[in-house]
Specification:
- The complex is a heterodimer of chains A (about 300) and B (about 425).
- In chain A, about 75% of the residues lie in helices and about 5% in strands.
- Chain A is mainly alpha-helical and about 300 residues long.
- Chain A has one domain.
- Chain A is globular, with a radius of gyration of 20 Å.
- The model of chain A has no long low-confidence stretch (mean pLDDT about 90).
- Chain B folds into two domains: about 5-150 and about 290-370 and about 390-420, Response regulator (Rossmann fold, 3-Layer(aba) Sandwich); about 155-285, 3-Layer(aba) Sandwich (Rossmann fold), CATH 3.40.50.
- Chain B starts with a helix and ends in a 9-residue tail after the last strand.
- Chain B has helices spanning about 5-15, 20-25, 50-70, 90-105, 115-130, 155-170, 180-195, 215-225, 235-240, 240-245, 265-270, 295-305, 315-330, 335-345, 390-395; strands spanning about 40-45, 80, 110, 130-135, 140-145, 145-150, 170-180, 200-205, 230, 255, 280, 350, 355-360, 365-375, 380-390, 410-415.
- In chain B, strands 7, 8, 9, 10, 11, 12, 13, 14 and 15 form a nine-stranded mixed β-sheet that branches.
- By secondary structure, chain B is an alpha/beta fold.
- Classes of the chains: A mainly alpha (about 300), B alpha/beta (about 425).
- The interface between A and B is large, with 50 and 50 residues.
- Chain B: This is Urea ABC transporter substrate-binding protein.
- Chain B: It comes from Halorubrum saccharovorum.
- Chain B: InterPro entries: Leu-bd, Peripla_BP_I, Urea_ABC_transptr_substrate-bd.
Chain lengths: ~300, ~425
């Protein structure tokens, strides 16, 4: 394969490649990061939550509903599914990390097999909207490289606002931090757990809805498409949901985009995993864990 | 094999495949194990990564066997079918293959979609000298005593479509292929064709099977500006390439392929123009119908399986190869696998929905009617450039030109292009 030569155009292509990768990693991760970071549940069915968003979008779309409205269907479907799962299964597994993995892994198998039985081996795919932007010899998809990364940033900003500026956000964080005191202060912690899980699964569904027209084939095993990047990003990002997701997606997509741009998709994928391994070894608590440590140490020194 | 040996083998089997047996319980309980009648095993994926292609292979195999049973069976006996779902999982394939051979004592086996699966079960097939039909189009070169790879090979598929595109559009080729044995060897075959005909390979890239983002690939293709692309991408993840190609208005660069359309029917599942100007080298597609007189395989298929998605190239291979086997059994007058193989090795003509084909006895491969299938701007399929192509690589090129002749010597090998060519 021929590495691309440096030019203004190829740098632009690299930038769009980075944005594409960044948008994907943020959106794939954010639902998982909330459920893991705030509730201590590792949701191995995260890919299937996203897939429910995809199916919830594709089914109404193929029935004639315009795409933006169909996407709302995807979000609603995954949110409702999240609430049901939280009430029946996940509530028994709070802060039981390993048990929650087994339970949600089983759930993932059940969901993808049910999708196969009910909707058959594939749904017709949806073409990517918005066309492309041309520059020199190159072009990039507007939807994947401009629209989705912008939405990803808006989602993170929205989450920041919800969890820091609203009463709900404060109560939710109090519940996660110290459930007993929160209950003593009159917070319905049970409801907070449910609401947080619903937000996490709703965001997974939102990702599914957004990627329904950028996924290519829609088959019952596509959930795994999102799983690797999202887990790697959670591990690299560390405990802080928003800053962690943002910084991990930034670092990972620089390596992924540069690798796949200059040396091919294989090198891009390898670099992503390599960064994850190095991060696990050097920063066991992720980027945000390291930053927190470093701040505490500096404060102690002062 | 003698009857005394069956119980002993069953005991061995139950020890070795305890897990597999417990699974067989859920698969319809058809494993009677040495019940006396003829038994055929089908291992085709109905769930997991390859279910999209595997399901219609399973359906067509069942259809052929059921047709034979409705017409009085084989040698006066009804054929029993054992067909658990291997779920696109190679270790499950290995368990089930052992189980079907040792416990269910199958007289013939149809199994596996991907080349990786075939290679995973081939040692078990060899060890037990099991008559095995592998029906997917593949990279070619398998020369193996008891295996009949009846799908078209890379040399047959790429050999029909690559020169056609070079004549039509020019000599600069960009290769993209899946990064495993099938894709790598298919890429080698395009290189061989380029050497033979003087084409230029301007770019070559092997892409991991779980990659879904092709924007960097598309940028590289744009920077090399080839006359056409040869694509041997595989699986649901890689299909995204065709959609991204349309998003980036690349449908004016034609694509030659051995994998798209004829298997995953992307021309139906994707809106135009994702597959516009994709040219597939195929032996069969549903759109071809049934070329035999007075028969309609496509109607019979949808009558039996009203919910089926598509009748793909591989399913047709399963269908005609069941009849190929049944013919050989009739002629041999027995289900004994070695005797059936001896009959098959005499070479046979068979009238298949895709045309009049010939089994080459020496190599266990088919002379196929190959054609170029093109999808137009509305994804309508048209066929051109019909040509009969034999398994020339195994017959005439390997072993310094002597070819592989399984009638003369025992072999369990796979030749690759680099055995003969400098690639």
């Amino acid at each position: 394969m021929t590495p691309l030569t440096f030019s203004a155009y190829s740098l632009m292509a690299l930038l769009f490649q980075f944005l594409n990768s960044f948008g994907f990693i943020v959106l794939a991760t954010v639902g998982l990061a909330i459920i893991f970071g705030m509730m201590g549940v590792i949701n191995l069915a995260h890919g299937e939550f996203i897939l429910i968003g995809v199916y919830g979008t594709a089914l109404p779309y193929h029935a004639g509903v315009p795409l933006p409205i169909a996407m709302v269907g995807g979000v609603v479907a995954s949110t409702l599914f999240g609430v049901v799962v939280e009430r029946t299964i996940v509530r028994r597994f709070y802060d039981r990390l390993l048990d929650s993995m087994v339970a949600t892994w089983g759930l993932a198998l059940v969901v993808s097999q049910l999708l196969l039985i009910v909707f058959g081996s594939s749904l017709d795919s949806i073409s990517t909207p918005l066309g492309n932007v041309d520059y020199g010899p190159f072009s990039s998809s507007i939807y994947r490289s401009i629209f989705l990364p912008a939405v990803a940033l808006l989602v993170l900003a929205g989450l920041y606002a919800v969890f820091t500026r609203t009463e709900f956000g404060i109560k939710a964080r109090a519940t996660i931090e110290d459930p007993e005191t929160a209950r003593a202060m009159g917070i319905d912690t049970d409801r907070m757990y449910m609401a947080t899980f619903a937000i996490g699964s709703g965001l997974a569904g939102f990702t599914g809805a957004l990627y329904a027209p950028a996924l290519g084939s829609i088959t019952p095993n596509r959930g795994s498409t999102f799983l690797v990047e999202s887990f790697v990003a959670v591990v690299v990002g560390g405990p802080s949901v928003i800053v962690g997701t943002l910084s991990a997606a930034g670092v990972l997509s620089v390596f992924n985009a540069t690798g796949s741009f200059f040396f091919g998709t294989f090198v891009g994928q390898m670099l992503l995993l390599l960064v994850a391994i190095v991060a696990l070894r050097a920063l066991p608590d992720g980027i945000t864990g390291y930053v927190k440590d470093w701040r505490q140490r500096r404060r102690a020194e002062e | 094999m003698t009857h005394e040996s069956i119980p002993r083998r069953s005991v061995l089997a139950s020890g070795a495949t305890a897990l597999g047996i417990s699974v067989a319980g859920c698969s319809g309980g058809s494993g009677s194990g040495g019940g006396g009648g003829p038994t055929v095993g089908i291992l085709e994926d109905r769930s997991g990564n390859f279910q999209l292609n595997g399901t219609s292979k399973w359906q067509a195999t069942r259809l052929a066997l059921e047709e034979i049973n409705e017409n009085g069976g084989l040698l006066g006996e009804e054929i029993e079918i054992v067909d658990p779902d291997p779920q696109s999982d190679n270790s499950r394939y290995q368990e089930l293959t052992e189980q079907l051979i040792l416990q269910d004592d199958v007289d013939a086996l149809w199994a596996g979609y991907s080349s990786a699966t075939r290679e995973a079960i081939r040692p078990i097939i060899n060890e037990n000298e099991q008559l095995y039909f592998y029906t997917t189009q593949y990279e070619g070169g398998v020369c193996d005593n008891t295996i009949f790879p009846v799908g078209a090979t890379a040399r047959q598929q790429l050999g029909i479509v690559t020169p056609y595109l070079a004549d039509e559009f020019g000599d600069d080729i960009y290769i993209i292929a899946a990064d495993y044995n099938f894709g790598q060897l298919s890429g080698d075959w395009v290189n061989v064709l380029a050497q033979e005909n003087g084409y230029n390979i301007v770019g070559e890239e092997y892409i991991p099977l779980d990659e879904t983002d092709f924007s960097s690939v598309i940028n590289r293709i744009q920077s090399e500006d080839p006359d056409f692309i040869m694509s041997m991408l595989v699986g649901a993840n890689h299909e995204n390439f065709y959609d991204q190609r349309a998003t980036n208005d690349l449908e004016n660069i034609p694509i030659g392929t051995s994998t798209a359309m004829a298997q995953g029917h992307e021309h139906i599942r994707y809106d135009p123009p994702a597959l516009t100007n994709v040219y597939a080298g195929v032996s069969y597609m549903e759109e071809l119908g049934d070329l035999r007189d007075g028969e309609n395989f496509v109607d019979a298929f949808y009558e039996r399986w009203p919910d089926a998605n598509y009748l793909n190239q591989e399913a047709q291979n399963n269908y005609f190869s069941v009849y190929l086997w049944a013919d050989a059994v009739e002629e041999a007058g027995t289900f004994d696998q070695q005797e059936v193989i001896s009959v098959l090795e005499e070479g046979r003509d068979i009238s298949a929905p895709s045309g009049d084909l010939t089994l080459d006895g020496a190599t266990h491969h088919m002379e196929h009617e190959m054609r170029v299938a093109r999808a137009d701007e509305n994804h309508e399929i048209s066929f051109t450039n019909n040509e009969r192509i034999g398994p020339s690589f195994l017959r005439e090129e390997v072993e310094g030109g002597d070819g592989c002749d399984l009638r003369e010597e025992d072999k369990t090998t796979q030749y690759v292009p680099s055995d003969v060519y400098d690639v």
